[in-house]
């Protein structure tokens, strides 16, 4: 008979605790609902902004001459360019000579590095690359921009234009505003449900995965101990198991729902993308929202499904000219072309005028026209001028070297090119005098973690002199 009164008394004693738990749960539910609402509102605002920017892009690419005229006028309003009193395109091109980046630095800053471009000087292309790229990415890979679906692994972002709002509201994994690359990697490793990885460039991401292999045990220990965050021993065990199976397909073992890797193309990233795709990021798609240089965003990627490295040259700021590249000769073209004058299949060096300090500056970036969007060219980065091998008087361009190196890799079964460097061999001669193949190994030019994760081999490319050393896996 005393059982029921005792149970009733126990229930009365537990009521305050139960009420507190229910209140906390209700508060967490309200916070979760509020975060979801904020995410939906932010995404709606981003879609609206992308629709507006897409309409502006369509209009500008249909009326290229007028758009480039407006872009030039905006660029020449910079405070650091008081000598440019004319804004007509023809007059501008006829009266001002072409310059090079080194010459611009010397004239503007007394041989000091050029000041970084501020957010206000980035031009409309940077904003278009960001908002159009985010919407296109979400359309091609649904749910990658859902709450907690994306993590950035480097301090730099692949999105050219910072978006204080709604960008911060899209809720990427990681501690906001952190300056510690290790903290970014740990936050990503603690989140097995990621659908997209972001990095400043493919080269930076390559370094991240090399560091992950080198410091994997230390990172697993930090996750297991809860430094930072709550201890996750099971996740630490998954990390150790994934690393034990080697680099091939590592990203998908760590994040089974991963779909795409987002990086910014700064030119010369193709080899890093190929290395990532062949090993750590095998089976994943790569997307670059823009092609950028020191003067700002030069090209837009509007279709994540298309092959990596194709970009539309928009007619907005910065103002872009095209200098024809003559194959097989050192002779320079007499004059530049505008965007509407580009011919498919031809190669051009990009000439840039921005809002800050560059005036008709030859960037050295060579692109090939591979298509047309309305009246604007679609291009692919080919190589950078001035990058030549000239140890013993030869003149081998970067494009020729890359082609020969690719053929050499194809002749080595099972080899994957991670990175390479060219140095003069101080111990190898041009060849043996007895007719035998020279297989002597010289000192390795690579140091640190790169050698620890591959086999350093020296090969003699018959098409190239001097000897080339490469890093293989």
List keywords for this structure.
single chain; 473 residues; alpha/beta; 3 domains; six-stranded mixed beta sheet; four-stranded parallel beta sheet; 38% helix; disordered C terminus; GH3 domain containing; acid-amino acid ligase activity; GH3; GH3_M
Q: Could you give a quick summary of the protein structure above?
A:
The protein is α/β, with parallel strands linked by helices and 473 residues long.
* Gyration radius, in Å: 27 Å
Work out the strand percent.
Answer: 15-25%
Distance between the termini: 79 Å
**Based on helices, strands and strand pairing, what is the structural class?**
alpha/beta
List unreliable stretches of 5+ residues.
105-121, 430-473
**Average residue-wise pLDDT:** 76
Order of helices and strands: HHHEHHEHEHHHHEHEEEEEEEEEEHEHEE
Count the beta strands: 17
Number of helices: 13
| Tally of individual domains | 3
Oligomeric category: single chain
Task: Chart the SSEs and their pairings.
Blueprint: H1 3-62, H2 64-75, H3 89-95, E1 99-100, H4 101-109, H5 124-140, E2 150-152, H6 181-189, E3 196-199, H7 202-214, H8 216-225, H9 233-244, H10 250-254, E4 260-263, H11 270-278, E5 285-287, E6 290-293, E7 296-300, E8 310-312, E9 319-324, E10 347-353, E11 361-373, E12 376-384, E13 388-389, E14 396-397, H12 398-410, E15 417-421, H13 449-452, E16 455-459, E17 468-472
Parallel strand pairs: 1-11, 2-3, 3-4, 4-5
Antiparallel strand pairs: 6-7, 8-12, 9-10, 10-11, 11-12, 13-14, 15-17, 16-17
């Amino acid at each position: 008979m005393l059982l029921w009164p005792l149970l009733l008394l126990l229930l009365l004693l537990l009521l305050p605790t139960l009420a507190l738990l229910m209140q906390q749960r209700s508060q967490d539910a309200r916070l979760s609902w509020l975060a979801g609402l904020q995410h939906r509102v932010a995404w709606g605002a981003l879609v609206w902004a992308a629709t507006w920017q897409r309409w502006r892009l369509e209009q500008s690419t249909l009326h290229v001459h007028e758009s480039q005229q407006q872009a030039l006028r905006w660029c020449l309003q910079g405070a650091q360019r008081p000598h440019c009193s004319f804004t007509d395109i023809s007059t501008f091109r006829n009266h001002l000579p072409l310059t090079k980046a080194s010459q611009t630095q010397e004239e503007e800053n007394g041989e000091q590095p050029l000041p970084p471009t501020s957010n206000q000087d980035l031009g409309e292309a940077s904003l278009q690359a960001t908002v159009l790229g985010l919407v296109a990415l979400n359309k091609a890979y649904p749910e990658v921009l859902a709450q907690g679906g994306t993590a950035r692994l480097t301090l730099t972002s692949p999105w050219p234009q910072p978006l204080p709002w709604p960008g911060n509201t899209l809720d990427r994994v990681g501690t906001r505003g952190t300056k510690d690359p290790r903290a970014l990697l740990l936050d990503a490793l603690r989140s097995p449900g990621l659908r997209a990885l972001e990095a400043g460039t493919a080269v930076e991401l390559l370094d991240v995965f090399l560091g992950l292999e080198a410091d994997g045990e230390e990172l697993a220990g930090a996750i297991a101990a809860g430094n930072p965050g709550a201890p996750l021993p099971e996740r630490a065990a998954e990390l150790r198991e994934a690393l034990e199976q080697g680099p091939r397909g590592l990203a998908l073992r760590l994040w089974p729902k991963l779909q795409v890797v987002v990086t910014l193309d700064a030119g010369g990233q193709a080899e890093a993308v190929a290395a990532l795709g062949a090993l750590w990021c095998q089976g994943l798609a790569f997307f670059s929202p823009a092609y950028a240089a020191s003067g700002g965003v030069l090209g837009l990627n509007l279709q994540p499904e298309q092959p990596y490295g194709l970009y539309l040259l928009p007619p907005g700021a910065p103002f872009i000219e095209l200098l024809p590249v003559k194959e097989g000769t050192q002779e320079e073209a007499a004059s530049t072309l505008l965007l509407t004058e580009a011919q498919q299949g031809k190669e051009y060096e990009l000439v840039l005028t921005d809002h800050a300090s560059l005036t008709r500056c030859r960037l050295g970036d060579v692109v090939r026209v591979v298509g047309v969007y309305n009246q604007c060219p679609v291009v692919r980065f080919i190589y950078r001028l001035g990058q030549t091998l000239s140890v013993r008087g030869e003149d081998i361009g970067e494009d020729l070297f890359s082609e020969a190196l690719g053929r050499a890799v194809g002749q080595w079964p099972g080899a994957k090119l991670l990175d390479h460097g060219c140095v003069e061999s101080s111990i190898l001669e041009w060849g043996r005098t007895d007719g035998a193949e020279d297989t002597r190994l010289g000192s390795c030019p690579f140091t640190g973690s790169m050698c620890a994760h591959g086999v350093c081999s020296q090969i003699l490319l018959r098409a190239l002199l001097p000897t080339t050393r490469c890093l293989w896996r």
